[in-house]
């Protein structure tokens, strides 16, 4: 059974990176490609630290928007062609996917196994 590697409370943050829409039909390949494209960008100007984030930015019945990004101090320093998102302060259950190709399976395990049996609930 999947378990979070840690529970972490984080302050509000600003993130920049690549934002793309993905179909629910086999998103593993397109998300893996997005991570590859993000790595190929090299260091992002204005990045705070070296932690990278996979952020689900929104969803509808057919697809979801996903961002591969890093935290920045200010959007003004970020390259204009990268997406942006403001994330409010909140508590997170942190899960680790072994590699980009397994993000989909990890995500499904969180939603179908861990979340239903936990006392936690999903935020926006």
Summarize the structure.
This protein has 124 residues and is α+β, with helices and mostly antiparallel strands. It contains two helices and six strands.
Walk me through the structure.
The structure is a single chain. The longest helix is centred in the C-terminal third of the chain and has 15 residues, at 103-117. This protein has helices spanning 28-41, 103-117, and strands at 6-10, 13-23, 47-59, 63-72, 83-87, 90-94. 23% of the residues lie in helices and 40% in strands. It has 124 residues and is of the alpha+beta class. A four-stranded antiparallel β-sheet has the order 3-4-2-5, covered by helices on one side. A two-stranded antiparallel ribbon has the order 1-6. The chain has two helices and six strands; from the N terminus they run ββαββββα.
List the main descriptive attributes of the protein structure presented here.
single chain; 124 residues; alpha+beta; 4-stranded antiparallel sheet; two-stranded antiparallel ribbon; 2 helices; 23% helix
Secondary structure: elements and pairs:
Layout: E1 6-10, E2 13-23, H1 28-41, E3 47-59, E4 63-72, E5 83-87, E6 90-94, H2 103-117
Antiparallel strand pairs: 1-6, 2-4, 2-5, 3-4
Helix content: 10-25%
Mean pLDDT: 89
Q: Gap between N and C termini, in Å?
A: 24 Å
The number of helical runs is 2
Overall geometry comes to: globular
